[in-house]
Amino acid sequence: MTTLDSEQRIAPRASFFNDPVIRGIIYQVVVAAVLVGFIFWIIGNTAANLAAQNKTTGFDFLWRTAGFDISFSLLPWSRASYYWEAFLVGLLNTLLVAVIGIIFSTILGFTIGIARLSSNFIVSSLATVYIEVIRNIPLLLQLFFWYFAVLKAMPAVRNSIELPFDSFINQRGIMVPKPIPDDQFSFVWIGVVLAIVAIVALRYWAKKRLETTGQRFPVFLTSIALFLAITVLAFVVSGASVAFEIPVLERFNFRGGLQLPPEFVALAFGLTIYTAAFIAETVRAGILAVNKGQTEAAQSLGLKESDRLRLVIVPQAMRVIVPPLTSQYLNLTKNSSLGAAIGYPELVNVFAGTSLNQTGRAIECIAITMAVYLCFSLLTSAIMNWYNGRVRLVER
Does pTM surpass 0.70? Predict the structure, then answer.
């Protein structure tokens, strides 16, 4: 009887090819071999084509004189600058419009996302119309609208529209006063850093106080007062001063001040408006994902609607909001390359466009540009993953 059970327990041995483990290993080896062969074929084919066209490769072109103009640059630029300087100019212009777009699209997206859940019919309807209209129109078309139909349709320089605070707008962009701080202003920046440190310490103390005593402290208003007090004190004690260079209209154009070209304004505005619509939907979905019982529990504690939203709903919704929010930040950064379509001198336009055409180093320029966007994506993901770890719920 025992011998019969043992024979029944032993399963018949599968054939070599029908073993799922061995078959999986074979498939992976075959795929890896095909991939490596394809890469070697691409490299060999590219090298053969470059040799047939008598073209050289390498990064020595970065130290050659560029010899072209760039309309907008955060760094000193002239025709005598090198190609690596052109790369830096494009990189900084991309970073500038990406950072501005992320900050303002986040503020606008959170505001509209919360407004869409408002009990006020007009407010929620306006938010719905904004989201449905903006996110269903291609971004490139929106950039064309803001650039050609709005900014380029502005009056000529001689008929510039005067804005408050000695600012002007015309078809060449927006001109605003340029702040010029003196040497003593560095003490004010030190005061700003100290104020931020003090606010962080205040928030930490207020949180501990709430957990131990249950008493709330007005952190927001106190933080604003603390920031203003420390900054103004540093400004007064250091004797710092800030002069403003006012833009002045001369014969053909404005002189002085800070001039924002229409390409930059259109790209920053278009990216902000477009991305905010998607962030608003992300915020709305995150808030709706919070269990309704949490709202009812907050109501039973006597919290006002604004406090329920700020202290109970939004903190719990952030664990749902942060992952898709990271994706929107990545999309905004990559979509900044569409600025090449309206002439904004970002990385693709300056380095993968003009520099590539003049030097013929397509592989090097495209590889560097792709590496930059890859680094942007990895850095953004790392920062947002760190933030997601800070705001996630901790179960006890």
Answer: yes
